Amino acid sequence: xxxxxxxxxxxxxxxxxxxxxxxxxxxxxxxxxxxxxxxxxxxxxxxxxxxxxxxxxxxxxxxxxxxxxxxxxxxxxxxxxxxxxxxxxxxxxxxxxxxxxxxxxxxxxxxxxxxxxxxxxxxxxxxxxxxxxxxxxxxxxxxxxxxxxxxxxxxxxxxxxxxxxxxxxxxxxxxxxxxxxxxxxxxxxxxxxxxxxxxxxxxxxxxxxxxxxxxxxxxxxxxxxxxxxxxxxxxxxxx
Length: 239
Known about the structure:
Blueprint: E1 9-11, E2 18-20, E3 57-59, E4 64-65, E5 73-77, H1 83-93, E6 97-102, H2 109-116, E7 125-128, H3 137-149, E8 155-160, H4 171-176, E9 180-184, E10 209-214, E11 217-223, E12 232-234
Parallel strand pairs: 5-8, 5-9, 6-7, 6-12, 7-8
Antiparallel strand pairs: 1-2, 3-4, 3-11, 9-10, 10-11
């Protein structure tokens, strides 16, 4: 930091962003006619309940509804950050998942292959705890599905943030090519490196709080509390 700073100059400790405080011309004054009113920045709520199933998160300066990302989406975060609830909220906003794969209880290779063969690029596949199936035939099938449909693939994959940026093969690097991710509770700017972004850090560590990254642009978000039930059906529960 320089030794001398102009009045109103500030440094945000959580990410090192330099800011300048705007000094009003007069206390309580209004902007002159014809000028744009000052931008409002509303705080994000700690918890969001929304009756509209198409709303999966609120965010940005106005804490408004966030558009559903198209194509493949990574959901990354530490344990307890709300990965599963984010996956559920995304699926609900998309109208439900055609297939839900649980990394903690994965399907057989044969069953998964049979189901994937009947899905097209618009049929949503949600994968939870993807780090638990790394290096398995189940992951290989999902990688092939993602590669076959490319940027059109409706594929949402949740996994632990730790290790996501150092994986060189598998489902996470495959989806990272889309450069779209929900990074929950980032602890350092490098936590978004897997999708080529440096998310702001130091936010409240509440479930569902994080950053939506899309092609390098970041938006602070709070994921809505999920409705009862999951956002899709597990393989084996569907006839």
